[in-house]
Amino acid sequence: MSRWGVAVALAQALLPAGVAAQLGEAQYGVIGSYGTSSAWHGGAGLIVGVGAGRLIYVGARWVYYFGSSAVQTDTGGTFDVDVGLQYPLGATELVAGVTIGAVRFGQRAEPVSPGTGPPQSSSRVEFLLAPNLSVQLRVSPFLLIPEFVYSFAGSPDLRWPVQHQGPLLSLRVVLPFEIQRIRR
Which CATH class is domain 25-181? Predict the structure, then answer.
């Protein structure tokens, strides 16, 4: 196949899909997430958002991360706002955006041996900035939204060092509701 053939095929594959003329879509759902740093690991939460004009996405999310370790538990909880641009690709939509919010890091450590002291715990709230890329897949009445996020969270001043930056993979399952349709 020639370069022109590849260019034409690629252009047609990336053309926006024909969709119903709607002004927006409200989305309500749940999110499951996994991060590689010790403060993240597995997490779950709630999400609400609006796809305005099917061009811009604005939403809010709350996620609690369960953390890790047997002796010391590092956890995180986020309260965030998502902003992104939507681009229809066939039956899917690509959303590139940024997540801005606050993350609460928590740390709890048990004594090394019983009777050597009480458990110690501390927490700090830090700023979170995280670029993200997601794909919205329509499956029956739901949207399945796999998402890649790279977290740039502030460094929490906790007793023991905590990994606070790194990649996160999420899956959102949302129920979309049409807001309004364009009529002539």
Answer: mainly beta
The pTM of the full predicted model, rounded to 2 decimals, is 0.73
| Residues 53 and 26 sit within 8 Å (Cβ to Cβ) | no
Q: Which of 109, 31, 119 is nearest to 67 (CA)?
A: 109
Kindly give the confidence (pLDDT) of every residue in the chain, 184 residues in length, as a single tens digit, with 9 standing for 90 and above.
Answer: 677 776 666 555 555 545 555 568 899 999 998 887 766 778 899 999 998 877 888 999 988 887 765 555 556 678 889 999 988 887 788 999 999 988 877 776 766 666 666 766 777 777 888 899 999 998 888 989 999 998 887 666 666 666 667 888 999 999 998 886 655 5
Structure tokens at 9: 């095929």
Tokens found for residue 78:
């986020």
Q: What's the rounded Cα separation, in Å, for the pair 169 and 41?
A: 10
How far is 64 from 132, CA to CA, in rounded Å? 18
If you compute the radius of gyration of the chain from its CA atoms, what whole number of angstroms results?
A: 20
Q: Taking Cα atoms as reference points, which of 165, 161, 159, 163 lies closest to residue 128?
A: 165
Nearest to 128 by CA among 62, 58, 46, 56: 62
β-sheet bridge partners, residue 59: 49, 82
